[in-house]
Amino acid sequence: MDFLSLPKRTSGNRTFGLTSVVDFGTPLGELKNILADYSHIIDIAKLGIGSAYVTPNINKKVQLYQEYNVKPYCGGTLFEKSYFQNKIPEYLSYLRNLGIEWIEVSNGTLEIPLRERLQIISELKEEFHVIAEVGSKDADKEMPISEWREEINLLLNAGCKYVITEGRDSGTSGIYEKCGTIKTDLIQELLQDIDPNKIIFEAPSSKHQMYFIKEIGPNVNLGNVKIIDVLILEAQRLGLRSETFYLEDIECNLL
To answer: Does 26 map to a domain?
Structure first.
């Protein structure tokens, strides 16, 4: 029985308000139990780093996600490993055989020239839903805000469904300082020119998630969410935690 006034959430086959979880090897039986209860608040599942390549029963895991209407894809590290070894055609065949329709084009470890990534995206977008990532996993590498803005816009214009802002599963690089502090100036600048519904902000901790919820609204796209934390995140989105308690009962970001 619903009796509280809560912020409105997107639902069903969402195009924004996304929760993208990271799966670092959740056992198949455990995953089935999680999805049975929480699949309605999970939209995308990243098979973290290159773990898909060594995951037992990977076909069954992919099929399980799809049965619960969750979109699985392989972490960008597997793309970069394939690129480094000149195995992109083999990687694409691997995805086709698994029935995976989403692909991440990243350069978090390698420095793949932007022009080359844009060309790859233009070729892949005819067959796959492409997600690109901006930012380095190296916390010592700093990108000017102007480059963040330009790169995100170019990637979206090239045909990406979404662009991920790098944050790692530790929240210590990309849009975060080494100590885990959010680069708020960067976020504020990006929000001035770019539709937040097209960005997936990596936010591995509750502290990070709550910042974006309060800054953008309950329907912000969040990634690198631990699969065991999806219910906590949904409660935060709905103002059911002290830090988000006063979110207004309005259709935030329902454009």
So the answer is: yes
Torsion of CA 235, 239, 245, 250, to 10 degrees: 180
Indicate which CATH number applies to the domain containing 160. 3.20.20.70
- 40: amino acid identity, one letter: H
The pLDDT of residue 226 = 96
Give me the residues of the chain with pLDDT under 50, please.
250-255
Strand order in the sheet with 102-105: 71-74, 44-47, 19-23, 222-226, 199-202, 162-165, 129-134, 102-105
For CA atoms 246, 210, 70, 190, give the dihedral sign: positive
Q: Judge contact between 168 and 177, C-beta under 8 A.
A: no
The whole-number pLDDT of residue 1 equals 67
Asked, for residue 11, whether it belongs to a domain, the answer is: no
- CA-CA distance, 62 to 207, in Å (whole number)? 30
pLDDT at 254: 46
Condensed to tens digits (0 to 9), the pLDDT of residues 113-130 reads 999 999 999 999 999 999
CB 50 within 8 A of CB 81: yes
**Total structural domains in the chain?**
1
**b/e map 71-97, b = 16+ CB within 10 Å:** bbbbbbbbbbbbbeeeeeeebbebbee
Distances 161 to 11, 13, 42 between C-alpha atoms, Å: 18, 14, 17
Q: What angle do CA 124, 128, 129 make, to 5 degrees?
A: 110
| Beta bridge partner(s), residue 225 | 21
Q: Classify residue 195: in a domain, yes or no.
A: yes
